[in-house]
Specification:
234 residues; alpha+beta; 8-stranded antiparallel sheet; 5 helices; 15 strands; globular
Length: 234
Amino acid sequence: MAREKEINKKPTKLLIIFMDIDYASFLKFGNKNHLEKLLNEGVIYCKPIEYFTKIETIDLRGDKLEGLAYIQNIKNIKLKLNEKTIANAPTGKLNMRHPKDKGNIFCLFGLPTKKLNLTLKTVQKLSLNLEGVRFGDYALLIFNPNEFIRRVDEALNKRDLAYTFSPVTYYNYKIFEGELTPFSKSDIYAAQSEVRLWIPNEKNNDLIIQIGNISDISRLLSIDELDKLEYEAI
């Protein structure tokens, strides 16, 4: 597959800078202890992509379709036993995975700048659609995304780790057919507005990255405080 060459090659540095999307800030949701480690020490926990396929929750954190390489739509399916048809289905889905699509991910909520009204020179409430992303009682607001990316870039290059940093693209699973990448997710997760760090890793184990204290570019907030955030164009 052409995508295998793209995703699994191991350059000394692979960085995709958000295409045409400009982000005003990132948000990382989670428990307070983990977020304090990220704030004070820059500890980034990157779970294997397989981990998210096995989470059984109702909060849209897990995704059994995570890591699919290709989806094919099938018509007129027959289920047979001992050469006898025991069931029929007019349509179906064939979900395929690539054995080399192993790696670790770190997920963030991205707030695109275009969603802010910067034409008004007054204080405005920051309206966030946080449906499906409240994975804990706290959030770390990263208000300098470019500097955060730079520090991640520096830490990964020191360890000679290839990676990609890019927004997730959402597709309609009911009708979609075609090739997928580690940055493809069903549109039932679209409200997560996810920006993803992907690190190819054939060992399929946890990775921990450390970028140092980031208290100068971020702030820890409770969910209640997040709901009260305001902004002003200056």
